[in-house]
Write a structure and sequence with these properties.
Blueprint lengths: L1 H7 L15 E2 L10 E8 L3 E8 L4 E8 L13 E7 L7 H5 L13 E5 L21 H16 L2 E10 L1 H12 L6 E5 L9 H10 L15 H7 L12 E6 L35 H19 L4 E5 L6 H18 L3
Parallel strand pairs: 5-6, 5-7, 7-8, 8-9, 9-10
Antiparallel strand pairs: 1-2, 2-3, 3-4, 4-6
Length: 338
């Protein structure tokens, strides 16, 4: 399964079946008007999956919580610091357990880890939908529905950090820039952190999946304001109080790519014919991420934002993101005060 997720990461089209284990418990907890938990299911002894009725998404969605020690015996008003983990464009929080085994990391036993789902290629955004708005409103689901729900009924505190892979890396930076004060620190692993630098990459992915390319943010020329509003590159001043970590590979085969690793499948429109990828690039998506992350790092440093980076040889694949997550965790937890 890990190999399948790696092969599909470039197109964010992999949807996994979520394996069930322990029995469900009675749902509880209300958030903003119209938001309600309609189901709870334990997966193992610490992982709780919530089914949430979401007006922002126009239907049910899931949120997974990796609960800290003592969480089930919590008293009224007891709160834990929160680590948000944001999945890639597939939107499936199961990746954090299957690919990264976060439920077995001992350093996460005294924080509440929140892993929300997202519609396929949701890009952590409220979609423009040709000016009509409406579902999916991913940012509203995560920040205006899930966050207050968890803070009201599930022990989430107001000390928060976030990390994400691919589109999730974009989500971590974009949320921090669009909602100043929300996160103390963010980490992006191969994130689309500057989408206006490569709008054709975003549009090619939408086209490949059969999604209306203008429904997300519109046309990058005609609706440039909307693209800029969602691109954290254009909001560096809002990140000055946030510790930022950026990492990405260069698209070439690296130490975590097994011998004989095949190139990413061809996505029509991804490559700029005026600026083709080098012949030894196996992962064009990761080559694009390298350019975006380097540009973002320079932009943040020029505006006085505390930023650390790790740029390496490698492809757009979960083994690298697992390594980067484990490397970034100590700093993220320090920013939570753990």
């Amino acid at each position: 399964m890990r190999a399948l997720r790696r092969a599909a990461a470039w197109a964010v089209a992999l949807l996994l079946l979520v394996p069930g284990t322990a029995a469900a418990t009675a749902p509880h907890g209300d958030g903003p008007p119209g938001v309600r938990v309609t189901g709870e299911r334990w997966i193992g002894d610490r992982l709780l999956e919530l089914t949430v009725r979401s007006p922002a998404l126009g239907g049910p969605a899931t949120v997974r919580l990796l609960t800290p020690d003592g969480w089930e015996e919590r008293g009224r008003g007891e709160r834990w610091p929160v680590l948000y983990l944001l999945a890639g464009g597939h939107g499936d929080p199961e990746a954090w357990r299957e690919d990264y085994a976060v439920d077995r990391l001992p350093q996460l036993r005294d924080v509440l880890v929140v892993m929300p789902s997202m519609p396929l290629f949701g890009f952590y955004s409220d979609w423009w939908n040709h000016g009509e708005g409406g579902a999916p409103r991913v940012e509203s689901f995560h920040l205006d529905e899930v966050r207050p729900l968890l803070e009201r009924s599930y022990g989430a505190g107001d000390r928060r950090v976030a990390a994400g892979e691919s589109q999730g890396g974009f989500g971590a930076l974009a949320y921090a820039a669009r909602r100043p004060g929300l996160f103390r620190a963010v980490a992006s692993f191969s994130g689309y952190v500057h989408p206006l630098q490569h709008p054709r990459a975003v549009q090619a992915g939408l086209d490949y999946l059969g999604i209306d390319r203008r429904a997300l943010w519109g046309d990058p020329v005609a609706q440039r304001r909307i693209w800029r509003d969602h691109d954290p590159y254009y909001r560096p001043e809002r990140l000055r109080d946030v510790e930022v970590h950026l990492s990405s590979g260069d698209g070439r085969a690296g130490v975590l790519d097994p011998p004989g690793t095949e190139p990413d499948p061809h996505v029509p429109g991804l490559e700029d014919p005026d600026d083709p990828f080098p012949r030894d690039v196996l992962s064009p998506t990761e080559a694009i991420m390298a350019a975006e992350n380097r540009a973002m790092a320079a932009r943040l440093r020029a505006h006085g934002v505390p930023v650390t980076t790790h740029f390496y040889r490698g492809t757009h694949a979960p083994p690298y993101w697992e390594r980067e997550l484990r490397s970034a965790l100590p700093a993220l937890l320090r920013d939570l005060g753990r």
